[in-house]
Amino acid sequence: MKKVKVATVWLDGCSGCHMSLLDMDAAIISLAQKIELVYGPLVDAQEFPEDVDVTLVEGAVSSQDDLNKLKKIRQRTRLLISLGDCAVTGNVPAMRNSIPVQKLLHQVYVEGVQANKIIPTDGVPALLKQARPLREFVKVDMCLPGCPPPAKAISSVIAELLDGKKREGTLAVKFG
Amino acid sequence: MPQKKLSVRIDGELISAVEGQTILQAARANGKRIPTLCDLEGLTPVGACRLCIVEISGTDRLFPACTTPVQDGMSVTTVSPKLTQYRRVSLELLFVERNHVCSACVSNGHCELQAMATEMGISTVRFAYNYPKLAVDLSHPRYVLDQNRCILCTRCVRVCAELEGAHVWEVTSRGIHSRIVGDLNQKWGDAKGCTSCGKCVQACPTGALAEKGWAVEEMVKKNDNISSLVRRRGVQA
Predict the structure, then answer these.
(1) Which residues make Cβ contacts (< 8 Å) with residue B56, sequence separation at least 6?
(2) Does any domain span residue B86?
(3) Are B153 and B216 in the same domain?
(4) Which positions in chain B touch A141 (Cβ < 8 Å)?
(5) Contact A175 B102 (CB under 8 A)
């Protein structure tokens, strides 16, 4: 059987959703026989491949770099899943949204430190005005909220997608 | 004088109600559940959250069950695709209006707004988030008011006025600018009318009003205490 190509992406999040993905215990072994992990923080690939079946995206869209990545991912993915509250609602990264970016950077990198009072510009992507959920930029096929989404919820969603059968009641959707 | 008995249909089932009862009260008395957020047993209903909307045959309008009195011969529908749609929209609008960051909230896991979203299977909202800049009032020695988490249900306003008799809480401004304020827009700590009884905190369905000293997920509200206090005092809402 041809393996389903799965990618995971880490935008503005804490990697907790990826931790939860790894936390599915023995289920990950049977899952690994059916999927091929083609891109993400857990594998080495440098470039997001063409023709991915399912991409799980963790984190909000916070920078121009996040947005560029997301647009490319959308073009190259059949099914895009918002993984976790940051991707679904903005969550913690969006708590900065009422503060203007320059004021925010000044507070953190100038007022907030003892030495090296410099706002970094080299090698870091420019922040967008606000951190916002994926759905506000691209079409999202499915949302899996939670902070993080429980491992069982992630594994059951992937299992559902693999065998095409909807499992009613297996997935308790909860923000936070 | 004995109260007049009325016959009404709720979801096709014939039930008997008492004159003066609301649709919500009649439904509950007959074991039927209608989703609510702003309602709290013992407090005067206000119809703020719009989750309890029902269909009444003979009219296209939707009515809040908590403020609409039953009438003889009325036929009420409490579950339909149309109602589900409107209830979902109401709930989604509550989520986008302010900053409901469940993961960083004292009431995470014990929140009526969050639980209602889970019950309705809401995994995302269809509207753009508002992300307003809102104040957190930490001036009271024991309690916190976080406007980010307020859904303007006005349970605090009502419990303070009707049960404690202190009339500290009010709603100022209109529409999206509406805010809960204490003692004519004083800081809570400066509100001389406040008796620090904490009824507003226990009545609040979210983490908007909370006790100080709790971390994420630790604030469990005891709003049953409010309702039982009302019953024991025999106060008629």
Answers:
(1) B63, B68, B74, B75, B76, B77
(2) no
(3) yes
(4) none
(5) yes
In chain A, the domains with their CATH numbers are 4-95+129-163 (3.40.50.700)
Distance, in Å, from the CA atom of B213 to the CA atom of B207, rounded to the nearest integer, reads 13
Which CATH number does the domain housing residue B183 bear? Answer: 3.30.70.20
pTM: 0.94
Residues of the domain holding B17 = 5-79
Contacts with B68 (C-beta within 8 Å, 6 or more apart), sequence order: B22, B23, B54, B56
Q: Is residue B61 located within the same domain as residue B115?
A: no
Q: Is residue B88 part of a domain?
A: no
Compare all CA atoms of chain B with the CA of A168 and give the residue at the minimum distance: B121
Numbered residues of chain A with Cβ closer than 8 Å to any chain B Cβ: 82, 85, 88-92, 94-95, 97-99, 130, 132-133, 135-136, 140, 142-145, 147, 172-176
Size of interface A-B (CB pairs under 8 A): 69
Say yes or no: B121 and B74 in one domain. Answer: no
Q: What is the dihedral of CA B103, B108, B109, B112, to 10 degrees?
A: -130
What pLDDT digit, counting tens, does each position of A134-173 carry?
999 999 999 999 999 999 999 989 988 888 776 655 566 7
Question: Between chains, do A95 and B121 touch, taking CB under 8 Å as contact?
Answer: no
Q: What is the pLDDT of residues B30-64, one digit of tens each?
A: 999 999 999 999 999 999 999 999 999 999 999 99
